[in-house]
């Protein structure tokens, strides 16, 4: 988890569990979203409220490693895995007592909300990502 | 909030907001549920997993005092307002930076899950509630 | 349910159930919200997207009459119970196979989102409510 | 969508939208879960309530193709893509007015809940899957 510049501590709610008595699979995606938003705030990507240019989620993945039950607290991380021309790949990790309970990823595309066109990741955003650590800009995507 | 024996600190998730940009009304009920479950754990009411005798929710209320937006952390409290023969009334309070953002209540009935019959609140549970402070047993209900 | 001008048929999702194997209490509030929004659309209250003047939720109540389990379909109704100067009281009913499973209410205040001031319910909205049937304008609130 | 033996029609709730005014990414996973559970019911996999042997979710993916906004109704499908020794791969498709809005997948492992051991997919389940159409048993996994 040390390589994740964003780490959120999130208490598991009793109501996060489903009829199988485990935290429901959709809740992990909510955790990852929360960490991703926190990462976006760090690079000033305007992700919490609609703006002219902003991120749109293209895909998500989640590997469920260990069932989680209430009561628990998880630590959820986000880091940039890859920066393309107009998109990012973000990696997620959720841990409990330091042990991984889930891993995931998100592909995020930067778009102009008015035109719907993809937008090149601006240089200042790339610099902000660099200063976070843990990510390397690579080729076009 | 000092009179609430159970107080949970809950981070607001970005995804708790709805299309109006405020925390959705159902999320407050989730907060109250979390505090209620924590209260039940304190009095050993067997509320987190199905058991023979346990609580069933009869009604809830919520007064929305101030809209809440991400980012924020709320403190959510639960206390016993009244103990009847077979039921409790629980009061809830949610605050942000010490200011109330919502108040609510829940009526909880103790039942035998097998027979579906209401069950008298056992004496040991009444003692546990007394030791919490903040509640007074009153007449039948 | 006949007296409810808005009636939505909503399938219960397996994931609506919590660790007790019943539809979670917050889901009922989501059902009521859906019916309320549909009611607002009928009276052109601008409730689905932010506008200059719109509704804000002041309070909700819910009486849980019968536990609901997946699989099921519920019918959820909304009707105007009372129209005040600047607010409405809406009544909700949820049924399964025609039998009530929950009743609820919502107090909704009309506000100017820019100034935060309460706004008098406009005459055209009152007319729209009248034409819905099932509501009677009463004194100030 | 014709090749999906399970197809659910699900109304989009206003509250499914997040602060960007689109259906939140976690909601798609809830849709997929609902279709998956319906598929499990068709092959008698005991997925809605805890039993001795049952499915556990190992991973999910979702490609978000088109933002969805309220009001809308989606059709969500599930089909078996692959059956292994102890696991399935399920494919998901969500459409609106016949056009794809999201695709996804889920890897599901069959386990003995008491021992935690993986369990071979029983022959009767394989037969039930065959009779659904749209799936072909392949090599071990």
> Count of DSSP E strands of chain A?
5
Q: Which residues of chain A form runs of ≥5 with pLDDT under 50? A: 135-141
Alpha-beta content class of chain A: alpha+beta
Share of helix among residues of chain A?
A: 10-25%
Strand order, biggest sheet of chain A? Answer: 1-3-4-5-2
CA-atom Rg of chain A in angstroms: 16 Å
State the helix count of chain A: 2
Commentary on this structure:
The structure is a homotetramer of 141-residue chains. The first copy, chain A, is of the alpha+beta class and 141 residues long. The first copy, chain A, has one domain (6-132): Thiol Ester Dehydrase, Chain A, CATH 3.10.129. Chain A is 20% helix and 38% strand. Chain A is built from 2 helices and 5 strands; from the N terminus they run βαββββα. The first copy, chain A, has helices spanning 25-42, 123-132, and strands at 6-11, 53-64, 73-83, 87-96, 99-112. Chain A has a 5-stranded antiparallel beta sheet, with helices on one face. In chain A, a hairpin with a 2-residue loop joins strand 4 and strand 5. The longest helix of chain A has 18 residues, at 25-42. The interface between A and D is medium-sized, with 23 and 23 residues.
